Amino acid sequence: MAEFKDISPNAPAADKALNWIDNRFPLSKMFKEHMSEYYAPKNFNFLYFFGALSLLVLVIQILTGIFLVMHYKPDASQAFASVEYIMRDVPWGWLIRYMHSTGASAFFVVVYMHMFRGLIYGSYRKPRELVWLFGCAIFLALMGEAFMGYLLPWGQMSYWGAQVIVNLFSAIPFIGPDLALLIRGDYVVGDATLNRFFSFHVIAVPLVLLGLVVAHIIALHEVGSNNPDGVEIKANKDASGKPLDGIPFHPYYSVHDLMGVIGFLLVFCAIIFFAPEFGGYFLEYNNFIPADPLKTPLHIAPVWYFTPYYSMLRAITSEMMYALIVCVLAAAYLGATRAKISSFFKAVVVGGAVLLVVVMLAIDAKFWGVVVMGGAVVILFFLPWLDNCAVKSIRYRPDWHVYLYAIFVINFFVLGYLGIQPPSSIGERVSQLGTLFYFGFFLLMPWWSRMGDTKPVPDRVNFTAH
Amino acid sequence: MSDTTVDTDKRTWLIASGCAGAVGGAAVAVPFISAFSPSERAKAAGAAVEVDISAIKPGEKLTVEWRGKPVWIIRRTPEQLEALKKVESQLADPESKRNPAELTPEYARNQARSIKPEFFVGVGICSHLGCSPSDKFQMGPQASLPDDWQGGFLCPCHGSTFDMAGRVFKNKPAPDNLEVPPHMYISDTRLLIGEDTKA
Fold it and tell me: Omega before B141 cis (within 30°)?
């Protein structure tokens, strides 16, 4: 509890007002803690724009969303027409709607960049595990938010996309069909589904998202930001206790981030005004046809940001299951022969593997496709405990680590591309290899991240004044 | 605090009332979760649909909506019925043995999967991920289909194929045959979909 502070009666009115507030609410204290006395490393590069940018996009989405809800009707018989009404009759409605639809794709662009930044500089490592976990939870919530929002225009892609994804849940043994019924609220995707997705999209998930964003930032400000060198700036402080390599977030980074905001808005506005559908990637052409429960469009693909995961889902065929069973058995064999654990645990490993193989054979490949797709996101949560490299940043890792990360990124793009394409036999093989690589990258990380010679990490960050 | 003794009696009551409160709190979840399940109106919309089938010519398909799903009524030609025998060896489950309780009512567990061989009644929803397959009644070679195609359905989403009785071909993503809904003939020309004599 702070002491009540008196201020000179001759002080300017603004100071008096601030003092009045500070005696009742920690305004100045919070500003100092999170802005003017929050010390961030001075060697941030452009990849550090994307955290602030995702916050900006969140604000854009909430603001435009509020206005869209004023005109949108969450009713299966009126939804499609109300979106067209927003586009044609509501003053500036087209702009608000395009900001929202482009914002959805922009959100994933900046979040993927933000996650990539964290991945290569080891920003998830001790003591920033919770920052990473909150971030992964945000990513998960964002995927739910985007999926449910996509149903609302009630076009053919909205409808059949939701139909396919909700049906994925029915692949879960025993509870699946009832769970899918509970999600839809009807025997098929219908008015009930549209209404509940609307409710989740405009209130439930955004509330969770906002809470997680606050938790993400509080956790970050508790431990301090990482940087491209992966050096802890708190290790070197000056006489007054300020990190030598840190600069106050405000005004240095608040102004610096404004530049990122301007660059982002240039691209964002160019897309809104000149290519809001972005060649069918941001708004799919089939979604300009009203939903028809009796007729499926000839080609169904999710929006681009889901396609890497969709590829992995499609990669799990009954043939692929045999490859996965071989992987499980190989892992069990290595565990039983190589691992330095007691024979009891070895027996547990072998027993567990045999049980898993039996279950893998017993349940349809369709279900394992769902498991793989979900697992591809869930595995990110474990990253802080998978990485055993002696250094954090990619800059001081062995050179071949850099190539491995490059292949990981290329693989992610290839999977994303294949997820947009109609199924083909070559695409299926490539996406199966890609899926194995994706999971191999993470699951084998405890071993490969230890291999190779790391480069010496400097005591202070690399920075040349400019 | 540390030098005062714990009033165990009071603590017991605190724990007991805490548990009672937790049970009550958990019970509140029941109405909320129940609210996710289909409403009475949605259930009522699942009522049976009566269809006049007298106007369907051989080789034609009529689509009606039942529980929001497309239900196909196909009047098969003798050639199409003949083809059902030819494709038998290429099917995953020719005798409809998988999940019969949900997919194939007793009266449809035959080669034609129907009460009257001529009329096939099936839900036009692929058993893979719920897309609606498209008609490929034309026999012979054509795009995305084998050269010895005998007529049937192709799912546009992931390429599953079905024969004229909605039976799925082997090595396709769809695990099951198309669902045959409960149905019965009220008269020679009137079909009731959604109800059978058992119900």
Answer: no
Q: Within an 8 Å CB–CB cutoff, is residue A215 touching chain B?
A: no
Residue B199: which pLDDT band, with cuts at 50, 70 and 90?
very low
CA–CA gap between residue A283 and residue A272 (Å, rounded): 12
Candidates B132, B153, B160: best to mutate against A (most CBs of A within 10 A) is B132
Given B37, B46, B157, which is nearest A296 (Cβ)?
B157
Average pLDDT over residues A202-214: 97
For every residue of A90-158, DSSP letters joined together read STTHHHHHHHHHHHHHHHHHHHHHHHHHHHHHTTTSTT-HHHHHHHHHHHHHHHHHHHHHHHTT-BHHH
Residue B134 CA to residue B152 CA, distance in Å, equals 9
- B156·A298 Cβ contact <8 A: yes
Cβ of B128 within 8 Å of Cβ of A366? The answer is: yes
| Neighboring chain B residues of A188 at a CB cutoff of 8 Å | 67-69
Average pLDDT over residues A176-190: 88
**Among all chains, which residue has been given the structure tokens 């009954």?**
A318
Shortest CA gap A180–chain B (Å): 10
Distance in Å, alpha carbon of B183 to nearest chain A alpha carbon: 18
Tokens of A314: 């499609």
User: Dihedral of CA A138/A142/A148/A153: which sign?
Assistant: positive
pTM (2 d.p.): 0.89
A449 touches chain B (CB under 8 A): no
A203, amino acid identity = I
Q: What are φ and ψ of residue B146, in 5° steps?
A: -70, 160
Sign of CA dihedral B171, B172, B175, B179: negative
ipTM score here? 0.76
Judged by DSSP in three states, B156 sits in coil
Rg (CA), chain B: 26
Give the three-class secondary structure for B120.
Answer: strand
